Fold these 3 entries.
Entry 1:
Amino acid sequence: MLRITDEIVLQDWELAESFVRSSGPGGQNVNKVSTAVELRFEAERSPNLPAEVKARLRRLAGWRWSGEGALIVTAETHRSQAMNRVEARDKLRDLILRALERPKPRRATRPTLGSVRRRLDAKARRGVVKAGRGPVDDDV
């Protein structure tokens, strides 16, 4: 069981852990011991998340979202399996908490009259500078 907030608690059947060998340096230990954790969360089938949160979670997850609707989180920074398990669960919790935040709606605004005038004045000044460039007369 993984508690996200007071209202959202993920059940054990929604989470599946598998252990694989880590990549990178580590000597003989990395070749023998499966310390990296792949935590699979069945997000699409989860009854604990509202549909809007699932949609935001899918967008946040990106390539970590599988075709079956599962979110796959990996952790392999630590040398011990237990610490990687905790890290994977923390990553999942943080991702879900970010998905719970509603984005602020964007309100279309217009530029102020002063900013439009300043922009056009700057363009005109720049045009004058560029117009002054060109071939030089040898008559002078």
Note: The chain has four helices and five strands.
Entry 2:
Amino acid sequence: MSGDGQARSHWFDDEAGPVVRPYAMTRGRTSHAAQHRLDLIAVVVTEADVDDPEADVTLSPEHVDIVELCRSPQSVAELAAELDLPIGVVRVLVGDLVDEEYVHVTRPVPPAELPDESILRDVINGLRAL
């Protein structure tokens, strides 16, 4: 068999990195019940009464890292970048932490719900006229 044929039978890429690890971190889950609220711009913040997440033996090291990072507000995208984890994995882990009340998630106001710029200009002009 030629070297080219052997390369085709080699089904994984050495540079792909760990493939099993994200699967193991999420215990095989690819989504979470709270997933619908966890888009890329959703902001995750650690609850005020959380002192030492490392004391909870049920949390994985990645869960603890998320709790610590979210002491200042972080978007889901920022967490994924900081932890060097896929977005799907971060969503599952954050969902776990929401369920356990370690963090809460807020979403920025959608652009469709923001006041129209022309209305704001009219209000400012009206205030100036007073």
Note: Residues 87-99 form the longest helix (13 residues).
Entry 3:
Amino acid sequence: MTEARAKARTERGESRFAEGFALFAECLLTGVWIAVASLPLVTYPAAFAAGARHLGRQLAHERGGWREFTADFRAAVRRGWLVGVAGWAVLAAVWVDVQAVRSGLPGGPFVGAVGVSALIGAAVAGLRAAASWRPGASWRSLLAQAGRRTVLDPAGSFLIVGGLAVVVCSAWFSAPLAVAALGAVAAAAVAVEERYRRR
């Protein structure tokens, strides 16, 4: 694949810098698309899946744009909205857990740490599942496989956590930056899954 990319770049007369900058710009644009597609709140897994597919096409030098992103989003949201609802339920459970910790229950800090760690693990598994999604794939099996990869590939999972930290810091600094950074998180998930497949 690396040779094919180098050959395609040479045929188009692009430098390595130009190709990298174009991919960076595509990540930022994809982040905006993901944010727009996530506005119904339960569609974020499908939005990330469509974003990951779009970035995968860009890496493979295949044609793709807003229409392909929209088609992938529609296919992914058919069952992906259930994953979105489950994600919000997990977040609500962790929020209740953190409130219990703040109220001073015995063993609260330990329980709170476990809850937050589980939330981070679920977010990483969800992103890995979204990066692996293909039309017709079962979200249940994708999440089960992604959960295993999250545990078996701690380095890759840590890279995705780093991407999530960038989004959080960007949102803290300026909310519009977080929107664009969502594309970087999708790119990180795509890169981690590609790295895992090549091992």
Note: The helical segments are 2-12, 16-37, 44-59, 66-102, 108-132, 139-152, 154-173, 175-198.
